[in-house]
Design goal:
Layout (H helix, E strand, L loop, with lengths): L7 E2 L12 H11 L6 E6 L1 H4 L5 H12 L2 E5 L10 H7 L4 H10 L13 H7 L5 E2 L7 E4 L3 H5 L13 H7 L3 E5 L8 H6 L8 E9 L5 E9 L6 H11 L3 E5 L2 E7 H15 L2
Parallel strand pairs: 1-9, 2-3, 2-6
Antiparallel strand pairs: 3-5, 4-5, 6-10, 7-8, 9-10
Helix pairs in contact: 1-3, 3-6, 10-11
Length: 274
């Protein structure tokens, strides 16, 4: 892993109160260091960028213009009774109310909206987009390798070796935090499958749509995911590794090699998780 005392900082690109255009987004992303051959895993906040002419679709268009492949998380928590979103919604309900709520929970299907924000949804619903099939932790991608990246996302593997993250690792993809913090860095989840000793496992349950359109609950065991330390891991990584920093619109952004981030996180977890 290449080391640097300070993260590389791109020139300031903040915009005026009049907002930012698609071309300004393209220029800022290139100034940050995004290359035409890059495969990007993007975590984006439209609100952080500020007012954009064309909204989230313009951001998605700019990303597609500057990179070869664009991948975004397209996770759904509203169809799971083991997710934090579900547990927060049923807090205070009676057992009868929980059963009634569970009966009305939406079942996952390929066109189901994600909970990952406007930019991710603009990529997911854009022309040529492909979505992986995991009913809780799917991704969406556009670009020449989108089909390959999204194929064979296994049920028992949210973010591990049978997920798009492992393929992104092998492709030397880069992570782009577009106005988001390290708490949103999904790549760190791959490290949760790789640190030693073996990570703990838990049971997950969600409702899906079968081929005939019927609802069906499914359960499976997978690694216990825990993102509470991601911000700490990210800050430590930034002190030791090659991270490009700059502004896209009004959003503070970070661009980094995904494999370096995963390797660092796996080592950090090995040393710090009990």
């Amino acid at each position: 892993m290449a080391a640097a005392a300070d993260a590389t900082r791109a020139p300031e690109s903040r915009v005026s109160a009049q907002g930012v255009t698609g071309q300004q987004l393209v220029d800022a992303l290139r100034g940050l260091g995004v290359g035409q051959g890059d495969t990007l895993l993007v975590h984006g906040s439209l609100r952080s960028i500020g007012w954009v002419d064309g909204g989230a679709q313009a951001v998605a268009g700019a990303l597609r213009e500057v990179a070869r492949n664009v991948v975004v998380p397209a996770a759904t928590e509203q169809n799971s009774n083991t997710s934090r979103v579900h547990l927060a919604r049923i807090a205070g309900m009676t057992p009868e109310e929980v059963l009634a709520y569970r009966a009305e929970m939406p079942a996952f299907h390929a066109g189901m909206p994600s909970g990952m924000g406007a930019i991710a949804e603009a990529v997911r619903t854009g022309p040529g987009a492909v979505r992986s099939g995991h009913p809780q932790s799917s991704f969406a991608a556009v670009g020449p390798e989108a089909g390959y990246l999204m194929d064979d996302h296994r049920l028992h593997c949210h973010y591990g070796e049978d997920s798009p993250l492992a393929k992104l690792y092998k492709m030397d993809a880069r992570v782009l935090l577009l106005g988001t913090g390290y708490h949103a860095c999904t790549a760190f989840h791959l490290a949760e499958y790789r640190y030693t000793p073996s990570p703990p496992v838990r049971r997950y349950e969600c409702v899906v749509t079968l081929a005939d359109g019927q609802r069906c609950w499914t359960s499976y065991d997978d690694v216990m995911l825990d993102d509470h330390e991601f911000e700490v891991i990210g800050k430590s990584f930034e002190k030791a590794a090659d991270v490009n920093r700059g502004d896209v619109g009004n959003a503070e952004c970070r661009l980094m090699p995904l494999c370096h981030a995963v390797d660092f996180a796996a080592q950090w977890m090995t040393e710090n998780r009990k």
